[in-house]
Amino acid sequence: MDHISIQAEIRIGMNDISTRTKIQGSSHSVRIWRDRVFVAGFVMAVLIGIAGLFALMLDVLIDGLPFLDFQFLTNYSSWEPHKAGILGPLGGTLWIVGLTALFTIPIGVGTAIYLEEFASKSRLNRLIELNIANLAGVPSVIYGLLGLAMFVQFLFNGSRNVTAGALTMTLLVLPIVVIASQEAIRAVPSSYRDAAYAMGANRWQVVKSVVLPQAMPGMMSGIILALSRAIGESAPILIISSLVVVAFIPTSPDSAFTVLPLQIFTWIGHQNPEFRGIAAAAIVVLLIVLLSMNGVAIWIRNKYQSRPEQ
Amino acid sequence: MTTTPNETSQEQLERVAHGRRRQHLEQKIITVLLMAAALISILTTVGVVILLVSQSVGFFEEVSIWNFLTGTEWAPHVSPQKSGVLELVSGTLLVAAIAGIVSLTLGLGAAIFLSEYAPERLRRILKPILEVLAGIPTVVYGYFALTFVTPIFQSLFGPDQVSVFNALSAGIVMGLMIMPMVSTLSEDAMVAVPRSLRDAAYALGATRFEVATKVVMPAALSGIVASFILGLSRAIGETMIVKIAAGATPNLTLNPLESIQAMTAYIVQISGGEAAQGSIEYKTIFAVGLLLFIMTLGMNIVGRWIISRFRQRYE
Description:
The structure holds two protein chains of two kinds.
Chain A: H1 3-12, H2 17-24, H3 28-64, H4 70-74, H5 87-118, H6 123-135, H7 140-155, H8 162-186, H9 190-198, H10 203-232, H11 235-240, H12 260-268, H13 275-305
Helix pairs in contact in A: 1-2, 3-13, 5-8, 5-10, 5-12, 7-8, 8-10, 9-10, 10-13, 12-13
Chain B: H1 10-62, H2 65-70, E1 74-75, E2 82-83, H3 86-117, H4 120-135, H5 138-157, H6 167-191, H7 195-203, H8 208-219, H9 221-237, H10 240-245, H11 263-271, H12 280-314
Antiparallel strand pairs in B: 1-2
Helix pairs in contact in B: 1-12, 3-6, 3-9, 4-6, 5-6, 6-9, 7-8, 9-12, 11-12
């Protein structure tokens, strides 16, 4: 069916069905039938995606639920599957998230403010924007290598500590925060800024007291998404931490550490297959944390989008 | 704020001037700080390039680039040393090709349904559900591939035909992970096709399928191609799924049921502490990392360039 045959159909008119059929090669009913078959195909694509998601969730729940109890959250890792818990990696993950937030929020939001409110559209600033877009596509293992060389070996003299991990994660999630914050800042109506400038405010005062409060919800949802990425990411931490068993919670920024996804990875590869159930139980905990964080981010975004003033 | 001189005393004038100076200084400091934050991203890129290139130079002094790129055997840790990266590249490309087929089929189908068929209310329910797939950690997908998908193939084809670690399971599961990305980007491209084009085709008596495949898809083709390229680049850089489910056996094969080793899986295997810093084995990870960086960067630049060209056409 190309445009010419459709046009031919129109020219011939609706009443001369036999001529129309000859010219088009396929009858009206065939076309309708083909339409329906392909709709079924498109619906299938959506359904297979959703079925995959549910299969994944069920697989994890069935394997993991028998091991999931309160002790699982409060025990350290153990050689016996039924005594093993996730206290060590849970503490490590909290440290990583906390420190990553501490580093990422000022740098990411600062970059976005600079690019949107302070920078002229010079070649350097276009380069920065292009660079951030490309950084978002750099594989996470590469960040791991960078963190190993720059933070572990150069900055901390070979100490594979939790700050090195958080700094690496910061570089990894920074593009997410910058891009989300830029979008949030762009969404603030320029009339707000003009009003503040008209009252004699300088650029920083406008940003501080007008733009930032307005852009806050959009930035928050970007920050939460970035932090949930930092929680779920394991390849760079596998390179930075390289610890298999951690029976302690990191007590200071220079403590050794492991994180939840890395612990899951270690348990999946354990010789004793019973540890796969433990891994699944840890996955359930990880997914609950991540899905609720994503839920909060989406909730903030929707609430923000539905506001009338735009 | 502003006060006229004849209304104020000398002290007031000075106070205002002082406040102004302070604000001006504050603004200057803030500007420098913000610019420093923005420069961190440039430094990150520079750091990555310097690190990968400088460490690879040491490797390429011992192994020629030609041997590295064309050799078909990979065993840098044994002697005589064999440093042909093709075994790792083929593993990566095999998994990425499977992931590409799965994510393009599912993602494009879903995008057509969501943009051309689904009523707005259904779209609002389906899209967030599909996007959950993109937020699940890769280590979880690795677990799913190893404990759910591989056993299915083993019972289908027989356990002696299907290795416990294989490219097929890893590729399929990775395709599922990338599907929302392909679907969202393709849908964005289709939604951007002007309504008038659709209306014209409907007015000529076209069915929805004909509108979708003969009007909307050709018009959105560059966006769809870009989504596919970006998805493939993501598949090439993905680590944990291939590390967990695809194996650790460098293998130049097209058989997706065999165990392979991807470039990323090799990097984490060696950098996890096994190799001594400065040894030839340690240097290989940076050479492999450099190749990986060039491959993904090239694909990302092409994909983004196509998208920006496409946007200009309709906006």
